[in-house]
Amino acid sequence: LQPIKGKKAELITLANNNATEILRLEEIQTSQYNELLVEIQTFFALTHTPCRIEVFDTSHHAGSQCVGSMIVFENNDFIKQSYRHFSLQARDEYAQMRELLTRRAHKFEENPPPDCWLIDGGSAQFNLAREIIESSGANVDIIAIAKHKIAGKAHRAKGSANDMLHSHKGIHKLSPSDKKLQFFQKLRDEAHRFAITFHRATKLKELTRIKILGNKRDLTHAQIEKLLRIYGSIKVIENLNNTEIKEALRSKK
After folding, report:
1. Residues near 228 by Cβ (< 8 Å), separated by ≥ 6?
2. Which of 38, 149, 196, 241 has its CA 20 to 30 A from that of 230?
């Protein structure tokens, strides 16, 4: 139908005007995004325009339920089908990041490297990522973002966090209102959200297994904690026989 007059004609005109305005705004947004990428490439002297970025973060609780996350950003959008979770064996944050990045680099042949890696951390994590990339033979630019901390705790207030960026040019202390910093903060926060979500799910799953194990083997929570300190994993404890469990509980560890 193509009404020429009346209410239906008015609706057609309104729909056309709305569609035209949406297209105009999308074109402006795309143009601003492309300009930002070029500005980032120039400012940090990157090899590539960072069209596809992989962002990494880790999460753990007192060295347990250690997990890592990788999120992907491309064409001004988060590519959620490319997100990945990692269960990690390492216990400290630096070793966890090494394990996470190494495992990703080993997959470059089947899942090609991006233009840029964004790492949650400071100079140490930046140098670690650079070492892994150089060892892999890939050509990937690297940026690290170190959280602004107040009294030892991460300060994530929108628009006021003085996070520092690290690149091969050194340390960059940008204004909280700088679009480049805000762009990387947005990506880092999404990787953090994804890591925390997986960590909580992992922790809940392990707590459920601990409860089942305690009921099945008639073990107290304190006894299970001791076994975890010795063996490090519920899965290992589940495979022990009763004699092995008793001997472990009698040990002084």
Report:
1. 64, 234, 237
2. 196
Q: Which of 91, 93, 88 is nearest to 104 (CA)?
A: 88
User: Looking at this protein, which amino acid is placed at residue 52?
Assistant: R
Angstrom distance (rounded) from CA 12 to CA 113: 46
DSSP letters for 135-186? HHT---EEEEEEPPEETTEE---TTT---EEEETTEEE---TT-HHHHHHHH
Q: 188's torsion region: left (phi>0), alpha (psi -120 to 50) or beta?
A: alpha
Helix %, strand %, coil % of the chain (to 5): 55, 20, 30
* Closest alpha carbon to 70 in 122, 105, 32, 34: 105
- Longest Cα–Cα distance of the chain, Å, equals 90
Q: Which two tokens stand for residue 89?
A: 């064996």
Q: 55: which strand partners? A: 71, 118
Element (H, E) at 87: strand 84-87
Give the model confidence (pLDDT) of 109-142 as tens digits: 999 999 999 999 999 999 999 999 999 999 999 9
- pTM of the shown model: 0.73
Tell me how far apart the alpha carbons of residues 142 and 248 are, in angstroms, rounded to a whole number: 45
